[in-house]
Design a protein that fits this description.
The N and C termini lie far apart (78 Å). The longest helix is centred in the middle third of the chain and has 14 residues, at 209-222. The protein is mostly helical. It contains 23 helices and no strands. InterPro entries: TPR-like_helical_dom_sf. This is HEAT repeat domain-containing protein.
Amino acid sequence: MSIDSALDGIDTWLARHAPATHRSLRPGHPDPDQHPLAASLGQSLHEDALALEQGRPEVQEQLADLLVKKGDWDAALELVRRSDRQWTSRWMADQLARTGNYDGLRRLAATGCPQATCYLLEDQLAKGDLAGALAGVVEFRSMNHPPTLRLLELLVDHGQIEYAQECIIRRLTLSEELIDGFVGVLVARGYRSNAITFLIGLSGTEARRDHVYALLADQYVEDGNWNHALALASRSTGHWTGPWLAKQLAKAGNVAKLCELAEADVQPVRQELVDLLVRRGEIDDALELLRGYVDGAESWANGELARLLAEHGRIDELRERTAAGDEECALWLLTLTQRDMPGTPNALPPQQT
């Protein structure tokens, strides 16, 4: 069943938010020269914006959100109706859940919308219907759709950690935010060992593998198991190992080891070293390192050097580098000059001659 068929059944929801039923909505606007979205938003839209609205689903969704915020549900629903993209059913589920219309969610879930099913499962768990929710979770897993973090959180709160893990463990489209969030939920509730088990299982898939390895190593460290963390880093061929080790050394304040690693590695490690020196107040040492990285043609260091020079009042060097053609320093010098008001703390000192 299509999203149009589902929308036709949500009569009570439409009656609450729109003066006409979904079937009565028609494309167009009384003014033939004005795009209906422009009329709804109360302002003209550039032709490029209209072209984007036709072709890019993320733009269509943002426009629908904006129309809802303006209270124009008719125009938002018309935009949904005209689109043939996958975002429409998820967007409808979000709106139904936000307004508490669970009858509409049930109708939408019946069309096979996983997001609507997710919201219904959240509601069942929140109301204490554990048996019904778990039966629904088993069905939801077959949809191969990422769960919401709220659903995972509720399952964990009901002691159903394995059900929560099964909802997420074999999904190939997981976001880093969802993985981080679930691990955070487990750790916050005292289930660090379950978090480690989950990450070990997830590391066997292709879903964000480097990110998962780094998270797993973090959890080993937090659990006091440095041997496991270092063993994982040493046998991994991913790009996460250098930045992860640099982060751990920086957290431990081990400047000597970080300098040693920075000699052999590139940007992420050297950035951690510079950040650590700045946090320790060793600005001169940080600047000296950055000057060397800039001379070594490491482009990332230009912006960092200019920022530190500006923030710590090294105006003469900013001017020198600007005169030599450093665009990052020129931008910072311009920013400071714009703030240069006589009698204020931000005023630049006079140029030395």
